[in-house]
């Protein structure tokens, strides 16, 4: 049973039956009046419970709307469609509950409660819509910020003539890339085109504010950026290789080129250029600061100085980042802080030129000749000093190499002195021992080289047989050639066993023995015939 049925059946029917039973003997008019009074009292008693029931139904309808809206949005439906479906479902359930709560005997109106429920639902829908739109806007802004901050910063770091044109093209490209996603998300809210255009306009303004804030941030650090640009151009060549000041470079021209690059960076960050219109800021800065003299300009009248102003020509004040007067003061400070770098480069060139000279300057030669005359004469009179100095130099040089003086003094002066003093005596002993050993080895090697080789037994060599016999060859030679060799042992007699020639032999006999013997005629003729 519903709430109204329970109240009507249990309360009104029972009490009415009891009243009619007891008031049956009273007058009809009095009985009706008293019955109406009883009914009004019963309704007054039941009405607070009815109001509480309506409040419960109101809360229940709102909670149902919240739950249904969240579920519908999570399922991927559009916001407007989800609100309509959930509102109809919640109000239908609320109307049904109110209809069940109304008592037939009472003519109670719950339209005000229904309007309150509608307002509650609309307020919650508006709050959810605002939160969703804010979330959508923040997401789009964050995405646009990430797409603009780093590229804009890199463009400002490498600022040039096309910097603002590149920034504007980047801004338009990233803004156009994010708009389709925004339009797709806004289509679910079923809002008018005016709201969409307003939101797109806010996104574009936000993108411009990102670029302008980044430009202001970089303009506040203009002096640091100018010094960095000057250092890069001055210390590196066109191939980005570090310069070596050998004396052949034109320091004045390189310094002017580096200052010109820094001045161009100043002109880029001086104003914001959204329309990409040409201006004369760079020409004014170069002609006034780089080509002219700041000291002479400061003494000139303010009317003739183009930088004696707080605004640039044809530039809106809100787009001015660095005023002309600020440009002049920044340039003075920049020159004073970069002058040391130029002076150091010139000094390096001069030192390199002096280092490449073969002889010291003439005044140094004259000073050495005059101040060292006594020492030179002493060396000439006693040449032994020259030899001792040379030997001492070699000894000190060898000790320095063995001790590795440079590595020992890397940890400090006192630790280096202690380490060298501890190693000095052992190193000197090792050096002297090595010199003594080197002096002893060469004679031994020379003695080994001059040692006579072992006597080898002479081998008797057989003379090669003649390849051709002459007509005068003897028959014995012919017979020896045609006779096969027989294995005959050769006995080599030592000189001690050989009999010495007889001292009694006459010279005539010796001469006869040495004369060649002539072969007989028949032998020579036969040999000739054979040949």
TrEMBL record:
Residues 522-531 have a biased composition (Polar residues). One of its GO terms (biological process) is endoplasmic reticulum membrane fusion. InterPro entries: RHD3/Sey1, Sey1/RHD3-like_3HB. GO terms for cellular component: endoplasmic reticulum. Residues 439-460, 488-497 have a biased composition (Low complexity). Residues 438-531 are annotated as: Disordered. Residues 11-435 form the Sey1/RHD3-like three-helix bundle domain. The keyword Membrane applies. Pfam families: Sey1_3HB. The lineage of its organism: Eukaryota, Viridiplantae, Streptophyta, Embryophyta, Tracheophyta. GO terms for molecular function: GTPase activity. Keywords: Membrane, Transmembrane, Transmembrane helix. It comes from Aegilops tauschii subsp. strangulata (Goatgrass). PANTHER family: PROTEIN ROOT HAIR DEFECTIVE 3 HOMOLOG 2, PROTEIN SEY1. Residues 509-521 have a biased composition (Basic and acidic residues). This is Sey1/RHD3-like three-helix bundle domain-containing protein. The keyword Transmembrane helix applies. The chain crosses the membrane at residues 384-403.
């Amino acid at each position: 049973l519903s709430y109204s049925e329970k109240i009507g059946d249990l309360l009104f029917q029972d009490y009415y039956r009891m009243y009619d039973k007891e008031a049956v003997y009273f007058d009809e008019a009095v009985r009706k009046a008293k019955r109406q009074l009883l009914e009004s009292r019963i309704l007054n008693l039941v009405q607070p419970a009815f109001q509480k029931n309506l409040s419960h139904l109101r809360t229940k309808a709102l909670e149902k709307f919240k739950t249904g809206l969240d579920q519908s949005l999570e399922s991927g439906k559009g916001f407007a469609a989800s609100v309509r479906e959930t509102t109809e479902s919640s109000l239908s359930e609320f109307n049904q509950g109110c209809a069940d709560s109304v008592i037939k005997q009472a003519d109670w109106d719950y339209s005000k409660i229904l309007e309150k429920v509608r307002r509650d639902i609309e307020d919650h829908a508006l709050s959810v819509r605002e939160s969703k739109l804010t979330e959508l806007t923040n997401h789009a802004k964050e995405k646009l910020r990430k797409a603009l901050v780093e590229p804009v910063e890199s463009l400002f770091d490498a600022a040039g003539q096309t910097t603002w044109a590149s920034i504007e093209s980047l801004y338009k490209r990233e803004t156009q890339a994010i708009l389709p996603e925004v339009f797709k998300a806004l289509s679910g809210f079923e809002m008018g085109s005016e709201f969409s255009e307003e939101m797109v306009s806010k996104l574009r303004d936000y993108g411009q504010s990102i670029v302008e804030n980044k430009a202001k941030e970089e303009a506040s650090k203009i002096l640091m950026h100018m010094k960095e640009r000057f250092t890069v151009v001055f210390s590196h060549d066109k191939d980005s290789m570090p310069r070596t000041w050998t004396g052949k470079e034109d320091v004045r021209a390189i310094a002017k080129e580096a200052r010109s690059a820094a001045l161009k960076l100043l002109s880029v960050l001086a104003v914001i250029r959204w329309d990409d219109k040409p201006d004369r800021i760079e020409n004014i800065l170069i002609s006034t600061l780089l080509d002219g003299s700041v000291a002479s300009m400061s003494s000139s009248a303010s009317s003739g100085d183009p930088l004696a102003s707080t605004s640039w020509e044809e530039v809106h004040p809100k787009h001015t980042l660095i005023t002309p007067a600020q440009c002049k003061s920044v340039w003075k400070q920049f020159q004073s802080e970069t002058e040391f770098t130029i002076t150091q480069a010139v000094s390096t060139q001069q030192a390199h030129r002096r280092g490449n000279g073969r002889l010291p300057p003439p005044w140094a030669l004259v000073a050495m000749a005059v101040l060292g005359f006594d020492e030179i004469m002493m060396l000439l009179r006693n040449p032994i000093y020259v030899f001792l100095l040379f030997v001492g130099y070699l000894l000190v040089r060898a000790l320095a190499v063995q001790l590795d003086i440079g590595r020992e003094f890397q940890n400090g002066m006192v630790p280096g002195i202690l380490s060298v003093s501890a190693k000095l005596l052992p190193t000197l002993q090792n050096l002297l021992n090595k010199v003594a050993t080197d002096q002893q080895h060469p004679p031994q090697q020379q003695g080994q080289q001059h040692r006579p080789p072992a006597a080898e037994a002479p081998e008797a060599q057989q003379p090669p047989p003649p390849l051709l016999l002459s007509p005068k060859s003897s028959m014995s030679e012919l017979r020896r050639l045609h006779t096969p060799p027989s294995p005959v042992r050769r006995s080599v007699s030592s000189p001690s066993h050989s009999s010495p020639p007889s001292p009694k032999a006459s010279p005539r006999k010796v001469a006869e023995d040495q004369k060649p013997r002539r072969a007989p005629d028949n032998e020579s003729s036969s040999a000739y015939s054979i040949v």
